């Protein structure tokens, strides 16, 4: 077993050439680490370290995807950047995924940029497929539907919420209260 101490590392990194060698070794190990494929994924092109198959898709992505389907079959894994993506090729496979198994294929993959934009997946367009997401989608759909039909927020306030709030104020005899339940 090899034991490495802080003193040994400090001695090794005392010259510029050793720092360069350490940096190159670190980059090579990181590159090899990014090329590994997680267990259970379908076969597919390995791609380059750190960028995956972006270079292959740059010229003619449609032709490249068709060529990958011929080489690896109708279900294959493609690496874009650091993200592994399973590609379904063919109408029947896509229909089976999106119609027959819609719950398993719902949602969005996690990316840092979408996480920042959606504040942790808290919006309809970039959120994860959960019960909360379904409720938000239902509320959003109803709001758009009401807006399109001419039902306004003013109508809802004057005919629905305000009379209940007015009654609550009268019932409480002007005492302070939390209006949440009303």
What features would you highlight for this structure?
182 residues; mainly alpha; 9 helices; 2 strands; 7% strand
Note the topology.
Blueprint: H1 6-12, H2 16-35, H3 54-57, H4 61-72, E1 75-80, E2 83-88, H5 91-100, H6 102-105, H7 112-117, H8 131-149, H9 153-171
Antiparallel strand pairs: 1-2
> What is the ordering of alpha helices and beta strands?
HHHHEEHHHHH
Structural class: mainly alpha
Q: How widely separated are the two ends?
A: 69 Å
Strand share of the residues?
5-15%
Q: What integer is the average pLDDT?
A: 82
Structural overview:
The protein is built from 9 helices and 2 strands, in the order ααααββααααα. With 182 residues, the protein is mainly alpha-helical. It has a two-stranded antiparallel ribbon with strand order 1-2. A hairpin with a 2-residue loop joins strand 1 and strand 2. The longest helix is centred in the N-terminal third of the chain and has 20 residues, at 16-35.
């Amino acid at each position: 077993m090899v034991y490495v101490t802080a003193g040994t590392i400090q001695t090794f990194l005392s010259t510029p050439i050793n720092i360069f060698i350490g940096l190159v070794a670190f980059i090579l190990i990181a590159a090899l680490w990014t090329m590994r494929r997680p267990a259970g994924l379908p076969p597919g092109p390995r791609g380059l370290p750190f960028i995956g198959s972006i270079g292959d898709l740059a010229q003619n992505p449609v032709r490249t995807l068709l060529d990958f389907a011929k080489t690896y079959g109708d279900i294959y894994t493609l690496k874009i950047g650091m993200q592994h993506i399973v590609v379904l090729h063919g109408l029947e496979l896509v229909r089976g995924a999106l119609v027959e198994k819609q719950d398993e294929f719902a949602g969005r993959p996690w990316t840092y940029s979408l996480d920042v934009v959606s504040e942790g997946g808290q919006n309809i367009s970039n959120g994860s497929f959960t019960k909360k997401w379904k409720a938000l989608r239902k509320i959003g759909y109803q709001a758009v539907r009401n807006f399109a039909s001419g039902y306004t927020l003013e109508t809802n306030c004057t005919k629905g919420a305000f009379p209940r709030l007015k009654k609550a104020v009268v019932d409480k005899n002007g005492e302070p209260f939390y209006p949440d339940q009303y």
